[in-house]
Amino acid sequence: MTRRRTTAGRITIYVFTLLIMFFLLLPILWTILQSFQINDNLMQKEPTIKPFSPFYINYDVLRGAYRPERGYLADEVPHHVKFIPRSILNSFLVAVGTAVLSVLFGSLTAYTLSRVRIRRSRPLMVGVLAIRMLPPIGLIVPIYLILDTAHLIDSLVGLTFTYTAFMLPYSIWILYLYFDSIPRDMEDAARIDGCSRFQTVFKIVMPLSIPGITACSLFNLLMVWNEFFLALIITKSIVSYTLPVIISMFTQTFIMQPYDLMLAAAVIGFTVPLLLALFFQRYIVSGLTMGAFK
Amino acid sequence: MKPRESLPRRESSLVIILANVPTLFFLLLLIIVPVVYSFYISLKVYKTGSPPVFSWFENYAQIFQGEEFWKSLKVSLIFAFFATLMPTLLGMFLAVLLNEKVKGGKFFKGSYILPWAVPPIVVGIIWGWIFNGGFGLINYLLSSLGLIKEYLPFLSSPRYALLAVIVAACWRWTPLACLLCSAGLQSIPPGIYDAARVDGTSEVQNFFLITLPLLRNSLLLVATTLTMWNIREFDLIYSMTRGGPSAATKVLGYSVYSTAFKYGNLGQGAALGFILAFVTLMIAALYIIVLYKRIEY
Known about the structure:
The structure holds two protein chains of two kinds.
Chain A lengths: L6 H28 L4 H4 L14 H7 L20 H32 L5 H13 L6 H10 L6 H26 L2 H9 L4 H12 L1 H17 L2 H6 L8 H6 L10 H21 L1 H13 L1
Helix pairs in contact in A: 1-13, 3-13, 4-7, 4-10, 5-7, 7-10, 8-9, 10-13, 10-14
Chain B lengths: L12 H30 L1 E2 L7 E2 L3 H8 L1 H33 L5 H7 L2 H4 L2 H11 L6 H8 L16 H26 L4 H8 L4 H12 L1 H16 L3 H6 L11 H11 L3 H27 L5
Antiparallel strand pairs in B: 1-2
């Protein structure tokens, strides 16, 4: 665009941009900075800026070390803190499991919907869209009872299956749009050269849709890593809790509310998704806009 | 355009069916069946510890006759309204601002998405701490600016608790609104602005007469998407207020949870969940209509 701006105009734009960006980024930066404080400094009216020395003290406690400098007795650390490493592993397993299942099965369905002649595939896609909109919270009672019948309550497998069901419509939708954007002529040429349908899929379609599959997998990983409600209901014992469930336990009331540990846990909780969002922004943005607009 | 099926169909129906069995299995077992099953359970008096008894619409009658549901619905609608309106406006302004070439624009464009990626439960924890009545950042800032004399207990006062949760939701959704509006802005042909410049319009006129009308569809999509997410909000409420104080932030989602899993009334919880799913689908219908009736330009 070739509009010329007055200095006043440019300053106005800049000030407003900075204000909104300040609102969006300050809570994240403030949380990281304050996670380097011990509780005594956090619970003052005047905030302390200079990090405690050593600054990683709270992270050390979360790792399982005893740090008397923090000013507490060993048994004053809440019970659930010990399970943070385990919950990270659980979150990781469930996120990867869901991403694999939902992208694999989703691409099979998306490819069918995109390529094979099915009458009324458009109403089917609207159906997928409508299923995507259903809130897990509205269906939680029957889901709980069904999983209970199948002995999948309090199991990571049950949780992974439930996530897969709720992520599948997203995956189908995003992958369908990608497959649809790959020209059919290339597949036709390969078929004429004697490739079978499966060879065509593996040699032509899959390599071309790597960006779509990447976007879709990242989207799955991010959504599952962040999910809280289903994990809260479906997991029962502390060893099978995911990271968001363990973090949520800091909101219970303790005799000595460990705000320092809570902030360090919060930082651990958002590190993975923030890094994913920063490094794979292009994919995540394309996944989001495709999911919403087409 | 070439016809869609340019090759003779060679796959047998068996392959097609086999390829879709896993998807159908998951969707049927954990989404479609629960929709029907949820309605069925909602027709029973079903509390944990005692056998379910079929009772037609007793749960619904209880829900609609009690005050609790209507209060919860009201809180949900107020929350959904402001937690949609504010991020939509803020996101649109940010998108328009970032569309201008400013210094550092690349950094802003690369980082505004971050709050969206933070797990909602962590969003609640961070904002709950920022709004803390004893030593929160908001209280510190407000009192340094001289706007308040004593620290306000935001989360434990029925007057401010909902506001605090709405601010947290606004923080979480502004990036998504901005992202979708940016995509909408990209599709406005720049030539329109050149033509307007020749006609001598001001920047403000450009915004209201060109940008805003052409963004209308994007804004509608953003608003319906956010309404759908906000009407089911649970995580922020759970981590900031647990529905309190005195049910001031008890949204529908939280009612489902507390009825079914805190008080063990599965039948009534299922009924509330069914109502919530129904409300969401009404909004979703609106979304799908907007999506397919887009104006092309």
